[in-house]
Amino acid sequence: MSIQILNLILFSLVRVIDSQTTQNINVLLINEENNALAEKSFDVAKEYVRRNPSLGLAVDPVIVVGNRSDAKAFLENVCRKYNDMLSAKKTPHVVLDFTMTGVGSETIKSFTAALGLPTISGSFGQAGDLRQWRNLNTNQTKFLLQVMPPADILPEAIRAIVTKQDITNAAIIFDEFFVMDHKYKSLLQNIPTRHVITPVKSFNKDEIKTQLRSLRELDIVNFFVVGSLKTIKNVLDAADENQYFGRKTAWFALSLDKGDISCGCKDATIVYQRPTPDATSRDRLGKIKTTYSMNGEPEITAAFYFDLSLRTFLAVKSLLDSGKWPNDMKYITCDDYDGKNTPNRTLDLKTAFHEVKETPTYAPVFIPEDDPMNGRSYMEFSTDLSAVTVKDGASIGSKALGTWKAGLSNPLSLTDPENMSDYSAQLVYRIVTVEQQPFIIRDDAAPKGFKGYCIDLIEEIRQIVKFDYEITLSPDGNFGTMDENGNWNGIIKELMEKRADIGLTSLSVMAERENVVDFTVPYYDLVGITIMMKLPRNPTSLFKFLTVLENDVWLSILGAYFFTSLLMWVFDKWSPYSYQNNREKYKDDEEKREFTLKECLWFCMTSLTPQGGGEAPKNLSGRLLAATWWLFGFI
Q1: Which first-to-last residue range defines the signal peptide (predicted)?
Q2: 223 and 347: one domain?
Q3: How far apart are alpha carbons 471 and 446 in whole angstroms?
Q4: pLDDT score of 24
Q5: Which of 14-23, 105-114, 359-368, 556-565 has the lowest mean pLDDT?
Q6: pLDDT over 90 for what percent of the chain?
Q7: Domain residues for 459?
């Protein structure tokens, strides 16, 4: 009897102690209809708390599930459940918002901000993407918190790959497990990459083939498939039937699933990226999955919602235990809210959430120290990057390429950076030409089947710009002319209809052609006829000035000089009017010049210089001869 009394006393003491240390936490869980995995993980977290009394927690949840597209009905349902909690004196300590995106999710953000309810959200969106939480004040940023789910962070790896591979065009295809609405602008912002982000439009192979063809027609050669392994297989199978594998295209697959990719491809290599749990968390993950049946897939997503729920419980308990939870928390109903009476909170849920010491189940949560959490907090998981080779529908090998740590701007960590370039689409231009010697000459022995001046030119450009090319002849053998209906043929037609990227030939630049295609700066100007010859090398000589005139001309000048000088001497010697025959007549002249043979030679010589020959002969015949010599020298 005494033993029974003693056991009863001990049991009562245990209950008293338990009642003193266990914190009852009221949780309002708001979720979407298509996010059942989050609710299952929440149930696992609640069961984990129940089975571990040392945590000192008791969770009492109220769950609301709504449709993201019917915001009005969703909000009415949430308000009804919330008002019922207030009526039952079970005011929610915290709201767990597991909505993903869309109008319904924004409605919940507006609801929690308006009523001042401490909230932990797992919605998609980076800084500024949650419109209803975009302009929170300092106090609100401490209790209206968001942690981005793994499906919101994994696509950021595309930015790292594009940057590393220097990719200039990309198609990003995703399925319903990923939300990309807010990434159309931000994912590859400030990166010179022409890209298209589009959802997989169907699971029907023919429709996927059509979708891929439309993307390929945009000259896209780099494809990123973001989704489940099933989606990846469907897209790869469609690409194989379209013959989109080879050196001209590159394929990248990103998935949260933990399995290996598979497809019925004949010959394909795909760069595959998937998450792996941290080494310090693997044992805990296995224990949680085994003991508490957390078997949802993807396991990283299940672990995220489990950790988010458990961490929230522990953060609220920490505030309650430390006395930092306000005793006078004011709550108003949805009907009482008038747009101006939002309760003022001084609750620092962010610090408490950050300081939780519980071991993560998959990977730690990154929380910025100084900046607000919203749009900047996420599970900091790691991913493995590998190249998977598939032949005849079977995977024949996988080569590890490196890792990537989840983050908003983290680069790839590669084992061999140079090796990564082997998995990029080669830049291969389609060249169309017309045979015309010496510019384009058909030669089966040449590497590309052609030789000539144009081939030499494109080869030099290829070495500088780093690209490859395929060259074909114009189907009709024409350069390109326009008929009376405005239709083109030849090379111009091939370029206009995008069957070729470059026209390589001796094509004349015309105004009509410039209206439809772009020309380079002309490399060959066919105006007139130009003859090229070797430049002669003339020997140097002191008498090179004599080469100005031919030898016959020089002899003629010399002959004229001596003949004129002699004739002038004859005229002066025998003319009755010359000075030497009329000395008395000219004795008073200031200049007296007797034209001897020597003086005649000097006169004719100096007459050819700028200073002139001096006094001319006195006789008329001598003057006429001097004038004739002057005219000869002038000419």
Answers
A1: 1-19
A2: no
A3: 12
A4: 92
A5: 14-23
A6: 59
A7: 428-514
